[in-house]
Amino acid sequence: MGDISKDIQMQFSNNKMKALLNIMYTASWISSRENAFFKPFGISPQQFNVLRILRGAGKPMAVQSIKERMIDRNPNTTRLMDKMCAKNLIERIACESDRRVVHIEITQKGLSLLQKIDDNKPLDWLKNLSDKEAALLSDLLDKIR
């Protein structure tokens, strides 16, 4: 099991500072593993998040609605969508009632990719936590925000 004090070779002045740095360090650790996992699929964690949102919605969504649901609210969502369109994972649909609004729809290729990811996604990043500990952790993180 990890120990933040040993991992970054630092002593902490108080437990709140230790907890804050541990959250940041752990987020980076998870992000690194996510990037490595998604690389063979040719997408980023943010692109996966968009595909997951669209699949869950079950219908085309406005770009702004997608942005509001994203975990990592990338300020350059347009560029992210451009890359996904180029890969034929999503398609843009013009809104008939308002030219300024663009809806995004997941393609069959996007759905197929999600199925491959679902079949291979490791769920063991929290394997050292019991279900009760995971619930407590989630509640504590909610409390911070």
Please specify the SSE layout and strand pairing.
Layout: H1 4-7, H2 15-38, H3 45-57, E1 61-62, H4 63-69, H5 77-86, E2 90-94, E3 102-106, H6 108-120, H7 131-144
Antiparallel strand pairs: 1-3, 2-3
GO molecular function, one term: DNA binding
InterPro entries: HTH_MarR-typ, MarR/SlyA-like, WH-like_DNA-bd_sf, WH_DNA-bd_sf
Keywords: DNA-binding
Q: Would you give an account of this structure?
A:
By secondary structure, this protein is mainly alpha-helical. 59% of the residues lie in helices and 8% in strands. The protein has a single domain (42-144), classed as Arc Repressor Mutant, subunit A (Orthogonal Bundle). The chain has a three-stranded antiparallel beta sheet with strand order 1-3-2. It is elongated and about 60 Å long. The relative contact order is 0.11. The mean pLDDT is 90. Residues 14-145 form the HTH marR-type domain. This is DNA-binding transcriptional regulator, MarR family. One of its GO terms (biological process) is response to stress.
